[in-house]
Every structure is written in structure tokens, then in C-alpha cells.
Amino acid sequence: MEQKQEQKQELKKNLGAVTAMATVVGSVIGSGVFFKPQAIYTATGGAPGLGMYAWLITGIVSIAAALTFSEVAIMIPKTGGIVAYLEEIYNPMIGFLAGWVQILLFYPAMISALAVAGGQQMAFFIGDGYVAPVAVAMIIIIIFLNSMGSKIGGSVQVIFTVCKMIPLILLMIFGFVRGAGTNPVFTPMVGEGLSPMVVLGQLMIAILFAFEGWTNVGAIAGEMKNPGKDLPVAIVGGVSLIMAVYFIINLAYLWVLPASELATLTAPASAVAVKILGKLGGQIVSIGIIVSVFGSCNGFILSGSRVAYSLAAEGKFPFHKTFAKLNGAQVPANAIMLVGGIGAFYALSGQFNLLTDLAVFSSWTFYTLTFIGVIKLRKDRPNAVRTYKVPLYPIVPLIAIASGIFVIINQIFLAGHRSTVISIASIIVMLLGLPAYMIIKKDCKKILT
């Protein structure tokens, strides 16, 4: 493989704990907290109980996953995230397939879904019919900003993370102050005739999208000043903060409107704001949602482009010479345009829920392999230096692994025909990576000989 040029170029290590945590929080807190309550309370039949508990359950699962993920990320602090981890834990083919799926499905699906959500919110100000153009424009702007340098992209992440918290805080404070607080919160668990276990599976799929993005900081580990110290703080601290925000704001929603009404609203946050603050409140929250999804898109483009860059730098992606180049600002501009461009193409569909379901399934397949990797590394490298160890081993990793298997099985078999089709499509794309890998591997052998 031709690595001479790529080895001369190194990503600048100028990202600290604050930017890393902002990447986690900024990537995660996006459209999920504003849109998913409708899907949640629809699944529960308008009952609040299991919906609220599901935020806690899924939050705990995400923390177990983050704690487990951190050990692998710190042992292998390479730019590229899961791709680098799986390649080192298992073999190059598994790593390539993870990158293949992330570049073609996961990151573009997340970017486009968030941009579509932003486009839907802009309809509040400019009217319907502009969702796709606004979504594409948002992605193009973020591509431009990230191409100017990782410091600028990181600064954008910090600024938008702070800005997005403002409407969330307003909703939480005024929701409790002005809300009647007479609606049930934890009972009943589900509507009459519904199975709590089946409903819980549906809720976790919906809520996992709201938590998606906590692994993004692992993908930029190679640009962090002190990954051994900062990475667990960023991941675990970020996910814990997110879980607290999600639970409190959903409690505030129920303090104002009943779950049965939230189930009928496509934008429950805006409806709550209008209820407690009037029309101006709805406008403020809509602006907050737009800011939120902008920050989330920025985080996914920032991290996703590093996955493409990492594979290309090792000669393991089509047109690797092009995507391994760094521009004058020492960032992989071509890789940024690749991931963002695919996302912009997906955004033309305007299908928010389809894109989110696709992203969740495609990501959790490889998350689960990463969780299993912690146990494998403990067995294969018992004497390796570990500056961070997952607590309560092996209980926490087993919780993460069991949760990942449940997500995969639920999406394929239990979540309905639509989810099954999406899951199969994702698997087909992954399998298409096998011939691509063999071709690239063959080309690499020719170069070496």
C-alpha cells in the first residue's frame, strides 16, 4: 500500500476534554429529545409509565456501553474509532466492513436525518416545501466550516452545544413552574392490551436514536491532546449528562401535557413551549431545535470524515489517495466532502424515521462487536497497560453485549415489517463490502510486490 505521503501528514493533536465532551453532547442531543416522545407514547398506547422508565433504562444501557467502549478506545487511541478497534481486535476485514457501513450508511444516515429534522423546523418560519433544500444547505455549510480546520470545527461544536442547552433549560424550568403537574407520570405503564416487554423493545429502539453519537469522540482520539485522561471523562461524563437532561425534560413535558396528547404531536417540545410561553415560546424552541440539529450534524461530519480518512490513509478504501489527503488546514477535506455529500444525497428523501432506524441498526451491529472485544482483549492481552478499566468487569460489558444483541434481534424480528426490511437492506450493504475488500486487498498485494 502506498503510505509514504499519508505517513508524512499527521493530524494535529489540538482537541481537549471540553471539545471532546462537547462532541459527545453535541452529537447526541439533537432531534431525538424533541421528536421521539411522539413515537414513545404512541408505542405505549398513550400511557406515560414505561415511556419514562425507558429513558432511564436506555440511559443506563448507554452508560454501560460507554464505560465498556472507553476501555477499548483508550487501549487503541487511533483516529478512526470503531474501524481501528475492530481491525486490531479481530482482523482487517471486520474493521473494513465497519468502516464501509459507517461511511455509506451510519454517518450519512445520521447527518441526513438530523438535517431533515432541521429542515422540518424551518418550515415554522418559511413554510412547507423547503425541507430537502434546507437540509442540503445545512450540510453544505457544515462541510465548509469543517474544511477550514479541526479547531474551527471543534469551536463550532462547543458554541452550538452551549446554545442548544438554552431552550432545553427554559423548557425544564418553565415547564415545572408554569405546568399544572396534574398529569400521571409513572402510571399506567402501558395501554390496555399491550405487552410491556414488546413495547419496551420498541421504546429502546426509538430512544437509542436519541442517545446515538456517544462513540463519536472515539473517532477523533487521534486528535486529542491526552486521550488516556480525557476520553473516559468525555464519554462517561457526556452520556451521564445527556441521560439527566433527557429524563428531566421528558418529566417537564408530562408536567405540562399528558402522554396521550404528546402521542399525537409531531413536535412535542414546541407544543409544550407554546402552552407555557405562548407563540413566542414555540418560535424560540424551534430556533433551538435548528441550532441543536446543526450542532449534531457538525459532530457527525467531524467524526465520520475521520473514519473515511483513516481507512483511506491505510489504502483500504476506493480512491484512497484522494480521501487520505489533508488540505492546508491539516484536515481531511475530501473525506469531509465524501461523508457529508452522501448525507446530503440521503437528505433529499426527507424521510426522518427511515433514516434514523437505518442508522441505529447499522451502528449497533459493530458496537456489539466492540463490547465483546473488551473481553477478548482481556484474554488476549492480560498484561497490557490499561490506563482505564471498565468498572465491575465483566458485569458492565455483559450488560452492554446483551443490550446490543437485543437491539439487533429486535430490529430484525420484533419491530415490524418496515424495520425488518431496513435491517436486511443494511445487511446487504455490509455484505457488498466483502467483494470491495477483496478487490482492495488484491490491489494492495500488487503494489507491495
For the secondary structure, the number of strands is 0
Shape: globular
Strand content: under 5%
- Structural class based on helices, strands and sheet pairing: mainly alpha
Helix count, DSSP H or I runs of 4 or more residues: 19
Q: Output the helix-strand order.
A: HHHHHHHHHHHHHHHHHHH
Uncertain segments of ≥5 residues (pLDDT<50)? 1-8
Helix percent reads over 70%
Biggest pleated sheet: none
Radius of gyration: 21 Å
Mean pLDDT: 83
Span between N and C termini?
10 Å
Structural account:
- It is built from 19 helices and no strands.
- It is an all-alpha fold.
- Helix 6 (92-126) packs antiparallel against helix 17 (352-380) and helix 18 (395-414) packs across helix 19 (417-448).
- The model is unreliable at 1-8 (pLDDT under 50).
Which terms summarize this structure?
449 residues; 77% helix
Short description:
With 449 residues, this protein is mainly alpha-helical.
List the helices and strands and how they pair.
Elements: H1 4-8, H2 17-28, H3 32-43, H4 49-75, H5 82-89, H6 92-126, H7 131-147, H8 150-178, H9 196-211, H10 216-219, H11 227-256, H12 259-262, H13 268-277, H14 279-313, H15 320-323, H16 333-347, H17 352-380, H18 395-414, H19 417-448
Helix pairs in contact: 2-8, 2-11, 2-14, 3-9, 4-9, 4-11, 4-17, 4-18, 5-6, 5-17, 6-7, 6-14, 6-16, 6-17, 6-19, 7-8, 7-14, 7-16, 8-11, 8-13, 8-14, 9-17, 9-18, 13-14, 14-16, 17-18, 17-19, 18-19
